[in-house]
Design goal:
The complex is a heterodimer of chains A (266) and B (255). By secondary structure, chain A is mainly alpha-helical. Chain A is 75% helix and 2% strand. Chain A has a two-stranded antiparallel sheet. In chain A, helix 4 crosses helix 6 and helix 8 runs antiparallel to helix 11. Chain B has 255 residues and is α/β, with parallel strands linked by helices. In chain B, the strands form two sheets. Chain B has a six-stranded mixed beta sheet with strand order 6-7-8-3-9-10, with helices on both faces. The model of chain B has no long low-confidence stretch (mean pLDDT 92). The chains are: A mainly alpha (266), B alpha/beta (255).
Chain lengths: 266, 255
């Protein structure tokens, strides 16, 4: 326990010490200049934001829909087992494999190119197992009595899901979504071949633009370019921003779960 | 002798099984309009199963089989083509454990109207108020209609569930052991309420508690091991039961 805290603390301390000196308003709001050796990282922040939103827009309806189907419509047992096995396997696939899959299917086959769309789709597949299992747990936690109450009031099965089950399950589903955001925003490998670029002039202007993204920007700063002594501090600044983003997103999930417990005593 | 009232619901040769296990055997009984019919019997006798057949709540349980007919105003509610949603609007139900939605008090009562497609805010407001008054909850909640219903006490929650049920304007109201999880004072309030409600509604109540059946009901049905042992005027069932089994159960010899 203490060891874990110590480890986490060390990582934080290390990143903060190295990353803090480069932080400034300019660092957050301008693009890189002079061949990546100075300037800020705002296009990467914006790019990560677009990729996260894009992947959620795709994965949310799919994932929640899939969970609703599995929990509420009692599909035949064999089908459930097949779906469940696929979800578990999907969760175990290394993220770089998702990257290659995205490259082969979205970039090449569908001709979306290296773009926000391809990256979002790839990240959506990556986050799908997470969203499905979180939503499934949320739906299973809703007692049968709540569904019966709704049906006894003359609601159809679909109305029961829409007006009684989903609102009651919403806080838990939202917690799952936020954790998925944390996961997706930090992934590097899936966007490496599908969406990210080391340098893009300005901000992306359509879903078919390639983008800069925080995790890939760190990777790029550390492996490419000619002036490592100037790039490495920027990489640490970038890492600090990413860490702050991910941690604040996850802690908001914890706060949310806590508030949910207080309200519903579940 | 009071004149016989119209029969609202009828159970004709009803048998019911979960898979291979038959839990109700050939139940015949009439439910009279504006009267309270109590169904009593020991745990596991099938009384809850029976009352849930009256508004097709058992449809949700897979692998069950129903024989016989259940009539509402002379029409079989299990006939193919009958929409269970329509039946449940006419035959409302209050459950054993209070089960309000994790929504506001107002939204709980408005739920039935919203799913029915009513959009008129003014109408909804009137219905919510009148139903909360009918369920004797209005004075306690009128200043906190927009608080979460789960902040209410158990007895208040159960009266909220009754108000919610009345908002759909049912003709028959089923109570499945409505006081099982309530304290004596809350129980008394629910019983008074049932007495009040029978002026407007036809009521069926399942209860584990014989005194409660004696207090609130006009007719009593005694179920034992899935069979209807006795059915008649409550007074008669409790004073001069025609079956030895009923007498023994009422005397507390088993159950």
């Amino acid at each position: 326990m203490i060891l874990t805290l110590l480890l986490l603390g060390t990582i934080l301390w290390f990143i903060i010490i190295r990353g803090y000196p480069v932080l400034s308003w300019e660092f957050l709001t301008t693009g890189p200049r002079e061949g990546m050796t100075s300037g800020g990282i705002s296009p990467a922040i914006v790019g990560t934001f677009y990729l996260v939103i894009g992947s959620l827009l795709i994965a949310c309806p799919l994932g929640i829909g899939c969970a609703i189907y599995l929990c509420e419509f009692n599909p035949p047992g064999l089908l459930v087992n097949v779906i469940r096995a696929s979800i578990n396997n999907l969760a175990g696939v290394p993220s770089v494999v998702f990257g290659l899959f995205g490259l082969a299917v979205f970039v090449k086959l569908f001709r979306f190119g290296v773009s926000i769309l391809s990256g979002s789709l790839t990240l959506a597949i990556l986050s799908l197992p997470l969203i499905i299992s979180a939503s499934q747990e949320a739906l299973l936690a809703i007692p049968r009595s709540l569904r019966e109450a709704s049906l006894a009031l003359g609601a159809t099965r679909w109305q029961t899901i829409r007006h009684a089950v989903l609102p009651a399950a919403f806080p838990r589903i939202l917690t799952g979504l936020i954790l998925a955001v944390g996961r997706v925003s930090g992934e590097t490998a899936p966007i490496m071949f599908t969406a990210a670029t080391f340098y893009a002039p300005g901000y992306p202007h359509s879903i078919f633009s390639e983008v800069m993204a925080l995790p890939y920007h760190i990777y790029g700063l550390m492996t490419e370019g000619l002036y490592p002594e100037k790039q490495i501090p920027i990489a640490y600044g970038c890492a600090l921003i990413l860490l702050i983003l991910v941690l604040s997103v996850s802690s908001s999930a914890i706060v949310l779960r806590h508030r949910y417990r207080k309200t519903y005593g579940a | 002798m009071e004149p016989e009232l119209p029969v609202r619901m009828q159970s004709l040769h009803v048998s019911f099984s979960y898979g291979e296990k038959k839990v109700l055997h050939d139940i015949n009984l009439d439910i009279y309009q504006n009267r309270v019919t109590a169904i009593i019997g020991p745990s596991g006798c099938g009384k809850s199963t029976f009352i849930r057949l009256l508004n097709r709540m058992n449809d949700l349980i897979p692998d069950t089989r129903l024989e016989g007919q259940i009539l509402l105003d002379g029409n079989d509610i299990y006939q193919p083509g009958v929409d269970p949603v329509e039946i449940r609007r006419k035959v409302g139900m209050v459950f054993q454990k209070p089960n309000p939605f994790p929504k506001t008090i107002f939204d709980n009562v408005a739920y039935g109207l919203v799913v029915k497609g009513v959009r008129d805010r003014c109408l909804i407001q009137n219905v919510v108020e009148s139903c909360l008054k009918k369920s004797a909850l209005w004075s306690e909640v009128k200043d906190r209609l927009h608080e979460n219903a789960l902040t209410l006490s158990g007895g208040q929650q159960q009266r909220l569930c009754i108000a919610r049920c009345l908002a759909v304007e049912p003709e028959v109201v089923l109570f499945d052991e409505p006081c099982a999880s309530l304290d004596p004072i809350a129980t008394q309030r629910i019983e008074e309420l049932i007495d009040e409600l029978k002026k407007e509604y036809t009521i069926v109540i399942v209860t584990h508690n014989m005194q409660q059946a004696a207090r609130v009901s006009d007719y009593t049905a005694f179920l034992l091991m899935g069979e209807l042992v006795e059915f008649g005027h409550t007074e008669k069932v409790f004073t001069v039961p025609s079956s030895k089994k009923t007498e023994e159960y009422l005397a507390g010899k088993f159950g």
